[in-house]
Write a structure and sequence with these properties.
This protein has 19 helices and twelve strands. The chain is an alpha/beta fold. The structure holds flavin mononucleotide.
Length: 410
Amino acid sequence: MTDLPHQPPDRLASDPLAAEPTTDPELPADAVESTAVDLPGAKPRAAAHHPTMQLQAEQVETLPDMDDRKAEHLRVSLDDRVQRPGRGNGLGAYQFDPLSLPELDLDQVDTSCVLLGKRLRAPILVGAMTGGTAEAGAVNRILAEAAERCGVGFCLGSQRPMLGLSGDAVRSFQMRDVAPTTLLLGNLGAIQVRDHCSGKDLERLAMAVGADGMFVHLNPLQEAIQPEGDRDWRGVFDALGEVAASCALPVLVKEVGAGLSAATLQRLRLLGIAGVETAGVGGTSWAFIEALRHRGRTPQAIAGEVLADFGTCTADSLVLARSAFANRVVIASGGLRDGLEVAKCIALGASACALAAPLLRAARHGVDAVAAGLAGIIETLRITMFLVGAPDILQLSRTPIVRVAPGHLG
Ligand SMILES: Cc1cc2nc3c(=O)[nH]c(=O)nc-3n(C[C@H](O)[C@H](O)[C@H](O)COP(=O)(O)O)c2cc1C
């Protein structure tokens, strides 16, 4: 896969949301103090994005020793090396036909939409990321408050810690005081659903945080590379079917960065789920995050490096998801970084788009920084809509978009 024209290898460095390292007092030390470039032994950026880059034993060995997996995930996900712009999210292969006579008033262009019964100011969600510790709760509050201010949706990270019933863990997911009107979606891993949850349990997890629906995430690649990961995935499909049928709230299924493939989508469409989120290849690589968490060049760490881009890219996963789920919610995600990419996804069939890692980066600077990042994305979306003659999201979804280069499928 060649680098895409609008996604230079060093894209993250010029990403308007990729804020510089900070000592912002609003965020907990674990989430704030270090970035990739601060990690002892971290490689310079250009080398980090080289496709043949190998993990060096001394680098992984010098990663900070942290007991808490959540804190470690927050920290390692900020490492530039886990972003995968090299292969790309596939959207660079698509282009709009711009109009020089749009016949629209830019100020009248309406970016709002309705998703799962709630009106959003733009078809955007803060992707599922965290919760479970006081630090993670602080990050959630920043993200949730920014989502409320900007009128976009907000997704909690895995609520697995709530299965242990600790008060602190529960509080780190409770965001309704700062996000009373936001579309808020809960989250649990498919293995926890199989092992611990009925549809009613999933409903209770949602109710405890005031969620409007629940994501169940599929992450077999991440679990396979994770030092303490779940390796037995038998029975997951049947468990998903059971909870989808018995949970009163909408249940959606998502990947976490390897993308939902054609074969997976064909199976998922048989379930009574409300929709899917692609979380395709092209953004945060959980195989690579987990590889970085190994101490030394273990067999699993090597596999994580080799499989860092394994899966279905976001554009391909989106097109496949929309054809499999003609009338259900399809959320595009995985390496989405700007409003033009959001516009392309809507034209390719997305109901909405989720962004995770770039908003976590902005969150290191507090609510204003996240809100400013979201505002930039929404304004870019609005101007793109103006330039393609789409007065609203429905028209944007019907706007032709052409494939100008072969994607990962073709
Ligand atoms: C720090 C961090 C934690 C995440 N935790 C979860 C999680 O608990 N549950 C989940 O479904 N996805 C989780 N994700 C995956 C994201 O929701 C998203 O699918 C993925 O990162 C791709 O989007 P991105 O390229 O915009 O980061 C996490 C992502 C990040 C960066």
